[in-house]
Structures are given as C-alpha cells and as structure tokens.
Amino acid sequence: MAYDAATSDVVLFGGGVSSGPLGDTWTWNGSTWTAQAPTTSPAARLDAAMAYDTATGNVVLFGGYSGSTWFTDTWTWDGSGWTQQAPPASPPGRAGGSMAYDAATSTVVAFGGQNRHGELFSGTWTWGSN
User: Fold this and answer.
1) Exposed, middle or buried: residue 78 (CB in 10 Å: 0-12, 13-18, 19+)?
2) DSSP string across 73-87
C-alpha cells in the first residue's frame, strides 16, 4: 500500500485471503474504498513493496510472492493503470521488503526483505534517476 500524492489516494494492491494471494487494485480517497479495473495488472501476490515516486508522479511496486513464485518484476501505477517496467537490473526476488522515496536523490529506495528460503537481504537498491 502507498499514498499516491498525484491523485491524493492510497493505493492497495494484492494481499491474501485463506484461499491464496489477491491481484486486485483498490484506492482509498479518505472516505471510500474503490475497486479499480485496470486493463493490465501485476500477478496476484503477497508482501510486495510499494512507494510513491515524487519525481515521476507514479507509485512503484516491486517483488512479493505467490506460492513458489518470488517476483522480480517492477510495476508503476499512474492513477488509472499499471505498467510493467523493464529495468536493466533488478534486485533478487523478495517479499517483505521496504520502499520509500528519497527526496535528496529523487529516487525510490528499496531495502531488506527475504528470499524463498527465509534468508534476509540487507542490500539497498534505487529506482529512478540518480
């Protein structure tokens, strides 16, 4: 979940219920949850990291897992739809990591998380222009 300053909404993607991971997108405007229906979305997943990228005005989503799949994909939300990105390098697949925007460098910073074996990551990755 991340706050989208461009739309003044909170954006929620995925999560899980007893039957498995979810792949839905919801927005919260401060009083109402609204189910979104983008034409393209990330695969259903748990524990993805999300942050708002002030430099681009988009929410960035990375990683998460679903069953035996540990995602290494990056997606951006522009307020109405998801777009899969194709960065030249990506962190290893992880779940439970943290992301935040760093105004000093105009980048989204990703840190931590764990892999499918429960091993913890300590590396830092950035998304955006340095």
Assistant:
1) middle
2) -EEEE-SS-EEE---
Mean pLDDT (the chain, rounded): 95
**Residue keyed to tokens 């007893």:** 18
* Six token digits for residue 16: 């899980």
* Contact residues for 46 (Cβ-Cβ < 8 A; gap 6+): 14, 15, 16, 21, 64, 65, 66, 95
Buried b (16+ CB within 10 A) or exposed e, 88-115: eebbebbbbbebebeeeeebbbbeebbe
Q: How far is CA 99 from CA 20, 36, 68, in A?
A: 24, 23, 23
Global confidence as pTM: 0.94
Q: Per residue in 28-83, pLDDT tens? A: 999 999 999 999 999 999 999 999 999 999 999 999 999 989 999 999 999 999 99
63, 49 in Cβ contact below 8 A? Answer: yes
* 92 pLDDT more than 80: yes
Enumerate domains of the chain plus CATH numbers: 2-30+45-128 (2.120.10.80)
